[in-house]
């Protein structure tokens, strides 16, 4: 029997919304005109309910029919990058010795998230004029760097984290003489195309 991933996601969503409305299985089943057993099978992902049944359930819960499928649709956007296989890219303004490895991407939603593994090689040049929309989170993995954000400079070593408004000028100002790497996650509102 094929895996019922859509049915399971749909059932979980109905159960979650039913509980948010503080309704019992019997309450929702009765109001939707179905049996307790049928609602239980729907919530457990055991059957594929008809559209009219889903419409009755969404009507009782006072939500759009499409929102019952929201959790299934959200789960479809997943990005897996095996160790060492991130896409090496050159971001606008990238300087010599700065290596950006994109660790994943999200295709939909109102927010864009760009996770990078950044490696600063021994020959890397300081560059403190990066500036873009959103917020950025840095987590130091190896080496150390003096990182400028606006008028402040932070000495970052492994385990240190920095979260900042990336509209201010920022970037590595003083580099160590060894290879340095850190995780950078940039989050910004996605613009309409």
TrEMBL record:
Keyword presence, DNA-binding: yes
Source superkingdom: Bacteria
A Pfam short name: HTH_3
InterPro entries noted in UniProt: Cro/C1-type_HTH (IPR001387), Cupin_2 (IPR013096), Lambda_DNA-bd_dom_sf (IPR010982), RmlC-like_jellyroll (IPR014710), RmlC_Cupin_sf (IPR011051), TransReg_Diox_bact_type (IPR050807)
Domain HTH cro/C1-type: 14-68
Keywords: DNA-binding
Listed PANTHER family: HTH-TYPE TRANSCRIPTIONAL REGULATOR, METHYLPHOSPHONATE SYNTHASE
Protein name (record): XRE family transcriptional regulator
Organism: Sphingomonas oryzagri
